[in-house]
Amino acid sequence: MLDINYIRQNPEEVAKMLHDRQLQGDEPRLRRLLSIDTERRELVQKTDELKAVRNRRSKEIAELKKSGSDSAGQLIADMQSVGEEIAGLDSRLSALNLEMEEILLALPNRLDPSVPIGRTAEDNLVFGEPVHFPHPLEFEVKNHLELGKALGILDFERGAKVTGAGFPVYVGKGARLERALINFMLDRHTEEHGYTEVFPPFMVNRDSLRGTGQWPKFADQVYHMEEDELYAIPTAEVPVTNLHRDEMLSAAALPISYAAYSACFRREAGSYGKDTRGFLRVHQFNKVEMVKFTRPEESYAALETIRGHAEAILCALEIPYRVLLLCSGDISANAAKCYDIEVWSPAERKYLEASSCSNFEDYQARRANIRFKADGKSKPEFVHTLNGSGLATSRLMVSIIEHYQTPEGGIRVPEALVPYTGFKDISPLG
């Protein structure tokens, strides 16, 4: 969440941020927050003054009683009235604090100055040049659904029977290819990129969702197990970031870098009318996530590092891709700056998002209370948190299956994955 001191001192800047994010509807909420803040500070001052009076009078009453004077009665009566007034003010303060927190949790993060101003995804900027690899497809290509079904490696129909639409089943060499892809990415990130591997829970409590910003703003996107008050994770970012919730980290230990595999579960509420065929939009998918905790002054260099690590995976697999710098109207509410990495689908003839790499600055750390104390500083600071998909396998599998298809209807395995699969191709003959 944003710091109330920052909002108080920079209301015009916050209002502009809401406008740039196309969230003008949140401006009344901002005005209400500023009104609450003013009233709250006045009440705190008044309450403190009354409590100081009560403390002084309590000492006077004690002294009068000690001396045997019978004049303490009026002071006691007066203090009862003061106590009732303090109780009323405390009750009002409690209500204001709850309302303030509710608004702060709903407000989005501030934007880094390098984020382009735009209204929709159409205004995102292509960052650098799209990356291509020489794999000519000089024949009529099939899409990943056709190939997956013909080769017997993907079964969306049985997944729908077992669970529902958007829950794929990988079969035989398809399952092996998926597992190989996950292991390859984990090995690359841990052995070459310096991340520590963690294997997190796939369910979290509400405090964890709140810590990373999925609650309450995106509550409609997560699967909820009401009886246990647990939520299926939409991304490993949630449990991994919350590993350090309510902790004071060692300054010497920063940066901390984690890589984690998890299944991800998303309701995709509001996706009506979008293309939901095959892997284009699913409710369960696999992903390797990169998460970093850094000092504030190091976070933007870390963002470029994370993006580079995600790109390194695609280069090793020789998958065509491009990088987008998201504009103010398309960036997520939690991020101060975000890159999307999109892989090319030869059959769809368009780019598909396979990774997002974001710097949240102290937005998540403030919600999750993750701090460190720098050398020479008297007060602790909030860390900056970052994450990047390294990468999501569903859209990546689309590109691999389609990009490496053969004229005979088979699929070649990317060379980097052969040591993990144990086979070089998936042929129509099995």
Automatic annotation (TrEMBL):
Q: Which PROSITE patterns match?
A: AA_TRNA_LIGASE_II
Query: Binding residues for ATP, per the UniProt record?
Result: R266, R267, E268, V282, H283, Q284, F285, E353, A354, S355, S356
Supply the CDD domains for this chain: SerRS_core
**What are the recorded GO MF terms, alphabetically?**
ATP binding; serine-tRNA ligase activity
- Give the pathway annotation: Aminoacyl-tRNA biosynthesis; selenocysteinyl-tRNA(Sec) biosynthesis; L-seryl-tRNA(Sec) from L-serine and tRNA(Sec): step 1/1
Q: Which residues form the Aminoacyl-transfer RNA synthetases class-II family profile domain?
A: 143-414
Signal peptide positions are none
**Sorted alphabetically, which HAMAP family does this protein's record hold?**
Ser_tRNA_synth_type1 (MF_00176)
Q: Provide the assembly information.
A: Homodimer. The tRNA molecule binds across the dimer.
Alphabetized NCBIfam families for the sequence: serS
Per the record, the similarity remark reads:
Belongs to the class-II aminoacyl-tRNA synthetase family. Type-1 seryl-tRNA synthetase subfamily.
What is recorded about the protein's domains? Consists of two distinct domains, a catalytic core and a N-terminal extension that is involved in tRNA binding.
Cited function: Catalyzes the attachment of serine to tRNA(Ser). Is also able to aminoacylate tRNA(Sec) with serine, to form the misacylated tRNA L-seryl-tRNA(Sec), which will be further converted into selenocysteinyl-tRNA(Sec).
PANTHER family documented for this protein:
SERINE--TRNA LIGASE, SERYL-TRNA SYNTHETASE
Provide the protein name: Serine--tRNA ligase
